[in-house]
Design a protein that fits this description.
The complex is a heterodimer of chains A (about 110) and B (about 350). Chain A has no helices and eleven strands. Chain A has about 110 residues and is mainly β. By secondary structure, chain B is mainly alpha-helical. The complex binds FE2/S2 (inorganic) cluster (FES). FE2/S2 (inorganic) cluster (FES) binds next to loops of chain A.
Amino acid sequence: MSGWIAVAAADDLEAEDVLGVSVGGRDYALYRAPDGTLSASQGFCSHEAALLADGFVVGTAIECPRHQGRFDIRTGAALNAPACVALRMYPAKEEAGQIWLNLGDTP
Amino acid sequence: MANRSYALDPAIDINQPQSVAEPSWYRTPIPRPELKALVQRDDATAGRDYALWAVLLMASGAIAVATWGSWWAVPAFLVYGVIYSSCDSRWHELSHGTPFKTRWLNEALYHVTSFMSVREGHRWRWSHARHHTHTIHVGRDPEIHGPRPTNIWGLLSGLLYLRGGLRELRSIWVHATGRILPDAALYVPKSEWPKMVLTCRIYLVLFAGLAAWCLAVGSLLPAMLIGLPRFYGGFLHYIQAMTQHLGLAEDVDDYRLSTRTVLMHRVGRFLYSNMNYHIEHHMYPMVPFYRLPALHARIAHDCPPPYPGLAAAYAEIIPTVWRQRVDAEHYAKRPLVTA
Ligand code: FES
């Protein structure tokens, strides 16, 4: 899969929140920082694969619902245990009222 | 039937993350906006609670020191020890990173309360994560306190933190030498072992410093204030904490069947960081302790009736674990209500 894909309506994602989307059977998490900046990552936590969209964004960190590991939504960096491995990030943008995700060469 | 082994299954290894699949836990559905309000963290609320604890700790400690050498020291240190041992519920809550909004406050206080609790913080954070993934699933949860058949003396020794405390001291010693115990190797990822080893070494230095202080002043008093209170004063915390899962179902994917919510007096809830709302804590561990009463009110309709107090909980626990000495299949069944 490559190129930009519209995955959600821009209005569905509030500031300081996360939204889960599924593309081609894979889960991704879309984030909007308090300043409105968009970002996107793999949908599952790198610790034990909890769905990150069930967590909450506080400031610029997503907190995993299962064990409260946290990741930086701008870079994917793991911020505290039990999250230790960074999330894979994907380019995201907002255009024409939609959120677009670029999955690059994701198999 | 042969007794089951409660040892961790070596096939479930954090270093092979795909081997640690979570069961599909039942959770009472809560609309996201409501849940978002419930998970909000607040430094002021947590700060007031921790400040009150610190003041009580210092005041009771000062009284205990003043009575040292007289018989008044016995009740004074009991009170101090009970207040001190509130560190164990605070360690737990801080391990979830939920009380304070400011992250470094959670982290710094986590390591302080871990030391006070005589629990090495890195290992316990990972052990506790596994407990939440596989709550009371035999061979998967490293924190099952009441294996069947019941070991009555083992359970009673917990009142003085004997079994758990001695096991913890051994674990700290072994990990400080750079070796990793087999169970810890299954739930602490290799990348975190150096931190665990370093913390254990720091603990040993602190224990040695405490011993040297006692020798220098020719008195046990310093250890009576730091470390030992967890042993002589931890009984109330233990009595509260053993209501969490003891005697209930094993291997079920529904916290309402394996976990108890027990209503407690506000003093007990303060010392226990509201962990009496334990079904609520397991269903939604993101919710900070001070919002658990609100979460309880929100999901009570979908849960078994809470026990009205410790006495009611132990009226079930004691006969159940007594029977489990000889009948390992027996457990207390909780009624599920359909809303
Ligand atoms: S599954 Fe996300 S922190 Fe454990």
